[in-house]
Specification:
Blueprint (H helix, E strand, L loop, with lengths): L12 H6 L3 E5 L2 E6 L3 H10 L2 E4 L4 E7 L2 H6 L14 E7 L5 E12 L5 E7 L4 H12 L5 E4 L5 E6 L3 H5 L15 E6 L2 E6 L8 E6 L1 H13 L3 E3 L1 H10 L33 H10 L3 E8 L10 E4 L2 E12 L4 E9 L8 E6 L2 E8 L9
Parallel strand pairs: 3-13
Antiparallel strand pairs: 1-2, 3-9, 4-7, 4-8, 5-6, 6-7, 9-12, 10-11, 11-12, 14-17, 14-19, 15-16, 15-18, 16-17, 18-19
Helix pairs in contact: 2-7
Length: 368
């Protein structure tokens, strides 16, 4: 148990205690690191179903007459083409083209007065920073912002059986909800937001509800053999799927083109930091985030040096032993000239060098 006196607790904290969670301090929150064990939790998500308390994440609602076009200037993706009920993974950029945060914007359409609305889910560690940035850049554009981070709970139900566990609670047929689709429905006469998104590489849903509903859902799932999962296996799952973690694999000094997120960049509209990204596209980025497999079982951890010909050329940003592949895998930045698939590298682990090779992302891809 961590010293929890100054840490925030989610509305599901007491239920995690009942499930004998081991806790850790994560971005000022007392979060479950693991329950039954990392491997078991990881395997549950890959093979059947697992659930995560992600109530610590930032949850903003936005509304305004030109919401999408106003928000569009802050991200490199073109949100103006987003249809009601669809979501876009993207990044908030600073004036240098660096990543303030990676986010998901859920567009909820227009009302009869032509007011657009949407939901923004942001990282726990950057919630205050993101809120300040959005206020600073949107308040003069008739965009109304509301921070629901403390009022709402968020559960991620992930794995191939997620659909059959969640569907009985709602009147809609969730099998018709596409990936990155979302809807608002009712559970226990309370409004509930359900999105087919996640951070595990599996099919699944993220469910944003008032705390009372979240607590009932969590307890029901526990009673019906859904495995509670902690931050430990969330990290191994997202790494197998080559999904970056903000603060490790990307930050304000790194652009989306360097972070392997070129697919979120649409150059056909104006956005903050665009000229930097245009230059990078024309001249090629200096460094790139690559996926690596170690040749043995030695694990390359965050900040370990990457070498070629005994020269340090970069650093590991994330690394683990993949429970699914039973291989040591890692992400890290190397100069563009060393970023091709098949490039052999060395990683320094406790003053010894171990071989690695750059491989195609992602390490793991589910069968659709």
């Amino acid at each position: 148990m961590t010293e929890s006196s100054n840490l925030q607790q989610t509305p599901l904290h007491s239920l995690s205690c009942k499930s004998k969670a081991k806790f850790t301090d994560f971005a000022g929150w007392e979060m479950a690191l693991q329950y039954s064990g990392l491997k078991k939790e990881h395997q549950a998500v890959r093979e059947s179903v697992g659930m995560f308390d992600i109530s610590h994440m930032g949850k903003f609602s936005l509304s305004g007459k030109n919401l999408r076009s106003n928000l569009n200037y802050l991200v490199p993706s073109d949100l103006t083409t987003l249809e009601k009920g669809k979501a876009q993974y993207t990044v908030l950029l600073n004036h240098k083209g660096g990543i303030i945060d990676d986010i998901i914007f859920y567009y909820q359409g227009k009302n009869e007065d032509n007011i657009e609305s949407g939901t923004l889910i942001v990282n726990a560690s950057t919630t205050a920073k993101d809120w300040a940035w959005l206020k600073q850049n949107l308040q003069n554009h008739d965009v109304e912002l509301k921070d629901n981070s403390q009022e709402l709970a968020l559960i991620a139900l992930q794995g191939k059986q997620a659909l059959e566990y969640l569907n009985p609670f709602v009147k809609e047929d969730l099998s018709n909800l596409p990936s990155f689709g979302h809807l608002t429905t009712d559970i226990d006469e309370e409004k509930v937001f359900i999105a087919r998104t996640g951070y595990t590489g599996e099919d699944g849903f993220e469910i944003m509800t008032p705390p009372s509903v979240a607590q009932k859902l969590w307890q029901h799932f526990v009673n019906n053999n859904v495995t509670p999962c902690g931050l430990g296996c969330r990290d191994t799952l997202r790494l197998e799927a080559s999904m970056g973690l903000y603060g490790q694999d990307m930050n304000e000094e790194i652009t989306p083109l360097e972070a392997g997120l070129g697919w979120v960049v649409n150059f056909n509209h104006d956005f903050i930091g665009k000229e930097i990204l245009v230059t990078q596209k024309q001249e090629k980025v200096r460094k790139r985030l690559v996926a690596m497999e170690m040749e043995g079982k030695y694990i390359a951890r965050h900040d370990y040096p990457i070498l070629v010909d005994n020269q340090i050329i970069g650093k590991i940003t994330s690394g683990t032993l993949s429970p699914t592949l039973n291989k040591a895998i890692a992400l890290g930045y190397v100069p563009y000239n060393y970023s091709k698939i098949g490039q052999k590298l060395m990683v320094e682990i406790r003053e010894k060098l171990y071989p690695a090779v750059i491989v195609k992302k992602p390490f793991y891809k589910r069968d659709k």
